Amino acid sequence: MENSLLNMEGISRTFLQNTLVISIGKLAKFDERIILPLDKIEANDIEIICKEDSKVKLLIKNYKNNANIIIKIEKNAEFTLNFISIDDAAKGKYHFVLENNSRAMVAMADLAKGDINIDVLFDLIGDNSSAEWHLASLGANNDNKIFNINFNHVGKDTSGIMANYGVVEDESFMHFKGDSYIQKGSIRSKAHQSAKIMVFDEKCHAKANPILKIDENDIEASHAAVVGKVNEEHMYYLCSRGISENDAKQLITFGYLKPIANYFTDKNDVEFILNGIEKRL
Question: Which of 52, 90, 101, 271 has its CA 20 to 30 A from that of 114?
Fold first, then answer.
């Protein structure tokens, strides 16, 4: 039986004004990932507090409508959140607030059928706080998938990394958007954005337009946004080796999405993701 955030020892849970508050104690360390079962929580508003010097890994794979989640990461704490969206489409709003020397690592494997509209905000308010977001998404049939990923740099020496990779087929639509905003005074901060979508069919559509907003000079920032068709040379090479066009398309898609599994440490989760990619193809 998998560990659940709702019944683990060393984690307190209480309701405050219709908000479920989950607190992970100071210095608490959880080496194995823990399930956050959103589908079993009655409250739509959830607040997770990672106390000083704590370390936790969470996994979400069952979702609910209108989930509004705030995650507060106190100084020196490390927080890892993995999303797996295969049988159930990811939903909700996620707001991360990071204090001094805290770290958030977030990765989503989205292989679900249907529509997705997800909002994520990282508030890097503490000095030397850092956050990473990694996404692999597949849109097919009539899927409509929108990902709005934002970073707000307030503290000094902050770091925000966003890497979105998507594939669209058939008549699906995918949109990667969001801002990385380095505010005045957030000196020596770093913001790096990468948003790439591979388009296979004429009737599918994709947009990638993340934005950099810079109000400070002493910073480091980069931006890459690409939407384009599959490399024809790759298709030609595979087909020239006796592989059908459809099989070549599946091989390229698998290779494009597979790297997201590197951000999942549980072997069962990795196998679930790889099987999910093959199943969707």
Answer: 271
| DSSP run (H or E) holding 97 | strand 93-98
d(CA 234, CA 254): 14
Residue of 187, 135, 136, 129 whose CA lies nearest to 160: 129
Number of H helices, E strands in the chain: 3, 17
The answer to whether 141 and 172 have CB atoms below 8 angstroms apart is yes
User: pLDDT 10s digit of each residue in the chain, 281 long?
Assistant: 578 888 888 899 999 888 999 999 999 999 889 999 998 888 889 999 999 999 999 999 989 878 899 999 999 999 999 999 998 888 899 999 999 999 999 999 999 999 999 999 999 999 999 999 999 999 989 999 999 999 999 999 999 999 999 999 889 999 999 999 999 999 999 999 999 998 988 898 999 988 999 999 999 999 888 887 776 666 666 677 777 777 777 777 888 889 999 999 999 999 999 998 888 87
User: Cα 182 to the chain's mean position, in Å?
Assistant: 20
Quote the CA–CA distance of 99 and 148 in Å, as a whole number: 22
Closest of 225, 94, 220 to residue 159, by C-alpha: 220
Cβ pair 155, 184 in contact under 8 A: no
What is the spatial distance between Cα 14 and Cα 20, in angstroms, rounded to a whole number?
A: 6
